[in-house]
Design goal:
There is one protein chain. The chain folds into three domains: 138 residues, Response regulator (Rossmann fold), CATH 3.40.50.2300; 107 residues, PAS domain (Beta-Lactamase); 81 residues, Arc Repressor Mutant, subunit A (Orthogonal Bundle). A five-stranded parallel sheet has the order 2-1-3-4-5, sandwiched between helices. A five-stranded antiparallel sheet has the order 7-6-12-11-10, sandwiched between helices. It is elongated, with a radius of gyration of 29 Å. It is α/β, with parallel strands linked by helices. The two termini are 56 Å apart.
Length: 340
């Protein structure tokens, strides 16, 4: 609602005296302008025009509640865009039943006050807006989830205190085994071994609060021992969100025994990298450290750091974990498949 909200209240009820009471009470509401309308039957209610502002229906259930509950079902189906508040007698169970059937809230006739009714109606409008937004964004969220489920690597979103918000299908396969990574009833993501869990917790904390004076972070990956398999689980951590309340991390989980074939050529083409820069990017994505890659290729640390600075510039990133997140959630990873 805006600073001076306006809303049309449509009261559906047989008793004129009830309509007069509601109209008088709403006319005395401070800081809100209610336009009151009264009809005696659901059949007399027309769907409001989308440009007419906010609307809310007040349905009288004090008389013939069973019959009016059926009328509520008709209203919910007929006008899904309009919030409904029911007016009940002293039996609160009737109101709760109405909420289960689609009403936003209920008012008890013997406890009506101007402020209480105004607050209830405005809250019903706001709550209904939220439900509508949820319904409108559900297909988009489903599509985003489908993309994440196509990734050949586990993706886990966690809060700053390691509580899981989401994981894709590949991550679920690892978590269901409770080997290397586990999740408890509190939805906290932990390493299986206590010593490794302390290191994992520190890695997460360091990732979310890195030193301000360095673009080159320390470790952003960890290998977690598994009791049931010879190979460990590799977990790479990248920050997401901003602000104290919004901080979190994305965990990329992979099994080195099931490597994912990413195309260096595709990475170079997507981000304008040279072959050497693409090779370095892929090496970091596979969980290698800079010094490991320098040793493997027989080049100096100065060379790989220089290449990494160019990769950061071309990909608009500033940290290794951000770079890995970009690659593992981008088109190159979506097109990849596990190499068996």
């Amino acid at each position: 609602m805006d600073q001076n909200p306006k809303a049309t209240v449509r009261f559906i009820g047989q008793r004129d005296e009830d309509a007069q009471q509601l109209s008088w009470m709403l006319s005395n509401t401070a800081n809100v302008q209610f336009i009151f309308e009264h009809v005696t039957s659901v059949d007399d209610v027309a769907s409001p025009d989308s440009g007419d502002g906010d609307h809310v229906i007040v349905l009288d259930l004090t008389e013939n509640p069973e019959q009016q509950i059926k009328a509520l079902a008709t209203l919910v189906e007929k006008m899904p865009e309009t919030p409904i508040v029911v007016l009940t007698g002293d039996n609160e169970d009737v109101g709760r039943d109405a909420i289960r059937r689609g009403a936003q809230d209920f008012l008890i006739k013997g406890q009506l006050t101007t402020d209480g009714m105004s607050r209830c109606l405005l809250n019903a409008i706001q709550r209904h807006r939220g439900h509508r937004r949820d319904a409108e964004t559900a297909p988009l969220l489903d599509s985003a989830t489908a993309v994440l489920n196509r990734l050949p690597i586990g993706v886990i979103l966690v809060t700053a205190d390691s509580k899981i918000l989401f994981y894709n299908d590949k991550a679920k396969q690892y978590l269901d085994l409770s080997d290397g990574l586990v999740v408890g009833p509190d939805r906290i993501c932990r390493a299986t071994l206590p010593g490794e869990n302390r290191a994992f917790t520190k890695l997460l904390a360091d990732t979310l609060s890195p030193p301000d004076d360095s673009s080159f972070e320390g470790d952003f990956a960890i290998s977690l021992t598994r009791m049931k398999k010879d190979s460990p689980l590799n977990v790479m951590v990248a920050p997401i969100g901003t602000g104290v309340a919004g901080k979190g991390a994305v965990l990329f989980v992979s099994d080195p025994a099931e490597p994912v074939e990413l195309s260096v050529e595709t990475i170079c083409r997507l981000y304008g990298l040279t072959p050497a820069e693409g090779r370095l990017t892929l090496g970091l994505t596979n969980g290698y450290k800079l010094d490991d890659l320098a040793t493997k290729w027989g080049v100096s640390m100065h060379t790989v750091r220089s290449q990494l600075r160019q990769v950061f510039r071309k990909t608009d990133t500033s940290r290794q974990s951000e770079l890995v997140k970009l690659i593992l959630t981008g088109p190159a990873a979506v097109q990849a498949s596990p190499r068996l």
